[in-house]
Design goal:
alpha+beta, 50s Ribosomal Protein L5, Chain: A, five-stranded antiparallel β-sheet, 7 helices, 28% strand
Length: 148
């Protein structure tokens, strides 16, 4: 087991095509949500300047689902992106062994490419690393393994 769970979220502004963003969210999770009983959670919220936004979220906790997600993720990253993730692994890992990645929303929507970003409009990914013992060093070894 590499990850206990994975949470993917993305914010949709009023001018966004929610259907297209949903499609790209499901591109990250190559499973049939209905068949696999995976909920695509949709939450209405108020963003900056009182703008209405929709938050889309997928939460994976079955080992087969998290492994499939991780395999799909690494398959869709360039070698340079994987190298960058490994270099930044320590700063992307919190004390609870959650590993955070952000991918540029417009690049994924317009170019079908996963591109790391540190800001702005993006797909947020939180991976709860399954490290035994529950220590930072063990988690970093797993992250190295995932992105190698």
């Amino acid at each position: 087991m590499l990850a206990h769970n994975v949470c993917i979220t993305v914010f949709c502004k009023p001018e966004d095509d929610v259907g297209l963003i949903t499609e790209k969210l499901l591109f990250l999770v190559p499973l049939d949500p209905k068949k696999e009983k995976i909920e695509l959670k949709r939450t209405n919220a108020i963003g900056f300047n009182e703008k209405k936004i929709i938050i889309l979220e997928v939460y994976l906790e079955k080992e087969s689902h998290t492994n499939l997600f991780l395999n799909n993720l690494t398959k869709n990253l360039t070698d340079e992106q994987k190298l960058l993730i490994k270099k930044q692994a320590d700063s992307r890992l919190d004390d609870e062994l959650n590993f955070f990645l952000r991918f540029d929303k417009s690049k994924l929507i317009n170019e079908g490419r996963l591109w790391l970003t540190d800001k702005g409009d993006c797909f947020h990914i939180k991976i709860k690393i399954a490290a035994f013992p529950h220590k930072r060093e063990a988690a970093l070894k797993i992250i190295e393994k995932i992105f190698s």
